[in-house]
From TrEMBL:
Name of the protein this chain belongs to: Prolactin-7D1 isoform X2
Source species: Mus caroli
Keyword Lipid metabolism among record annotations: no
Signal peptide region: 1-29
An annotated GO cellular component: extracellular space
UniProt keyword list: Hormone, Metal-binding, Secreted, Signal, Zinc
Family: Belongs to the somatotropin/prolactin family.
Primary location recorded for the protein, binned into one broad class: secreted
SUPFAM superfamilies, A to Z: 4-helical cytokines
GO biological process, one term: response to nutrient levels
UniProt xrefs under CDD domains: prolactin_like (cd10288)
Length: 243
């Protein structure tokens, strides 16, 4: 499925469905082999991780909105979106140009069912790692633009900081679940720095457009995945029944 460039993607709906699950009774075994004490530690870590991922997803949406509404960028962003929407092909191309596309988060029910707890954890780890450097550059480049409003810069800074915090929680969770998963495993690298720094405003704002687009999508995906993992940990198979 192809999320539109402005509508929140379908993960949001799944998240809503999922939140109902947390009201249910604990039903069955967990997807990993761990003692009650370890499970309780994991639950605490996931409690904090889901708070962070929720805040990040909200910030991703509000930063994107701000780019569209603030006079700093609104003309350029609206021109880009009109241009992109002239053809489905262009939208697809834009969507597929996000640097995290190779992480291959499952999009169908079948693929979700085939993906293990550990593989979902790796997807979250790789996505967070893949955004660490780009977010640092975003903050630097926005800070260097004197006309960049605080409302945008502050959100970029908050996302960067929370990305690091969430990464720490995920690394702690991984060290419990399977220490063999390494932090330095391959993750997609971002290569749009030249455009983000470009003196040519058209190029620079197109880079900001794509950055905020891909980031918002990924933050929603991360939020979904972290909540889904927490669900799997607490309720196991029931989590799949919502699909
Ligand atoms: C879970 O771990 C315990 C203790 O380490 C072990 O005895 C048991 O065989 C394990 N169960 C599974 C299903 O791996
Ligand atoms: C979760 O966050 C709270 C508040 O920041 C903190 O006190 C607590 O230690 C965190 N839990 C874990 C497991 O890190």
């Amino acid at each position: 499925m192809l999320p539109s460039l402005i509508q929140p993607c379908s993960w949001t709906l799944l998240l809503l469905l999922m939140s109902n699950l947390f009201l249910w009774e604990k039903v069955s075994s967990v997807p990993i082999n761990a003692s009650e004490a370890v499970l309780s530690d994991l639950k605490d870590l996931f409690d904090n991780a889901t708070v962070l991922s929720g805040e990040m997803a909200k910030l991703g949406v509000s930063m994107r909105k701000e780019f569209f509404m603030n006079s700093f960028s609104s003309d350029k962003f609206n021109k880009i979106i009109l241009d992109l929407h002239k053809s489905t092909e262009k939208i697809t191309q834009a969507f597929n140009s996000c640097h995290t596309v190779p992480i291959n988060v499952p999009e169908t029910v079948e693929d979700v069912r085939k993906t293990s707890f550990e593989d979902f954890l790796k997807m979250v780890l790789h996505t967070l790692l893949a955004w660490k450097e780009p977010l640092k550059h975003l903050v630097t480049e926005l800070s260097a633009l004197p006309e960049c409003p605080y409302r945008i810069l502050s959100k970029a800074k908050a996302i960067e900081a929370k990305n690091k915090d969430l990464l720490e929680y995920i690394i702690r969770i991984i060290s419990i679940v399977n220490p063999a998963i390494k932090e330095n495993e391959d993750y997609p690298t971002w290569s749009d720095l030249d455009s983000l720094k470009a003196a040519d405003k058209e190029t620079q704002f197109f880079a900001l457009y794509m950055f905020s687009f891909c980031l918002r999508l990924d933050l929603e995906t991360i939020d979904f995945l972290v909540n889904f993992l927490k669900c799997l940990l607490l309720y196991d198979d029931v989590c799949y029944s919502e699909f």
